[in-house]
Amino acid sequence: MFGTSLLGKRGSDEISSCLQHYFEHFVISDVKDMILFSDNCGVQNKNIHIVLTCLSSIHEKIFDEIEHYFMIAGHSYLPCYRNFGNIEIELRGVELFSEPNYCDIIKEYRRRSPFMVVNMRNNFLDIEVFQSSVTNKSEGKFKNGRIFCIQTHTNRGLR
């Protein structure tokens, strides 16, 4: 997913928007269980906005269950980190004249199984509006969680 810094930052609304877009447009309809892996970044991944996005996907019957695992800081390494680092190296010394030029470099980085770049121009959601409508907020501590499991058959949404 791609959004220029003018349109979207890298906060939880933007991550939630990308997740929602992926769930709606790229997940095969007969997939009912989703497993997510994230780093422990509270601003982007480990917060109420991401949980609400997952709850929304369960409520809309996109999934029956979503398990969200958080890597232990300093002890784990997600494969995407290597891709991000290699793309950054690829971009060094390259003059970027336009957004499409930047996207082309990302697309062409891998010859086999190339990246698909989705331009998120106006697709960013404001999860704050959704969050204000939540009435039964859990007092759980997101910071201490390692796995969030959201299912259709639980009363509270989190296990």
Write a compact overview of the structure shown.
Helices cover 35% and strands 11% of the residues. The chain is of the alpha+beta class and 159 residues long.
Supply database-style keywords.
159 residues; alpha+beta; three-stranded mixed beta sheet; 5 helices; 35% helix
SSE blueprint and pairings:
Layout: H1 12-25, E1 33-38, H2 48-59, E2 65-70, H3 79-91, H4 99-108, H5 127-132, E3 147-151
Parallel strand pairs: 1-2
Antiparallel strand pairs: 2-3
Helix pairs in contact: 1-2
Organism: Meganyctiphanes norvegica (Northern krill)
Pfam family, one: DUF7869
Domain DUF7869: 32-138
Tell me what you see in this structure.
The protein is of the alpha+beta class and 159 residues long. It has a domain at 12-74 and 117-151. 35% of the residues lie in helices and 11% in strands. The protein has a three-stranded mixed β-sheet with strand order 1-2-3, with helices on one face. Helix 2 links the parallel strand 1 (33-38) and strand 2 (65-70). Helix 1 packs parallel to helix 2 (48-59). It is globular.
Poorly predicted runs of 5 or more residues:
none
Distance between the termini: 30 Å
DSSP strand (E) fraction? 5-15%
- SSE string, helices as H and strands as E: HEHEHHHE
What is the overall silhouette? globular
The computed structural class is: alpha+beta
Number of strands: 3
List the total number of helices: 5
Cα Rg: 17 Å
Largest sheet: 3 strands, mixed
Strand order of the largest sheet: 1-2-3
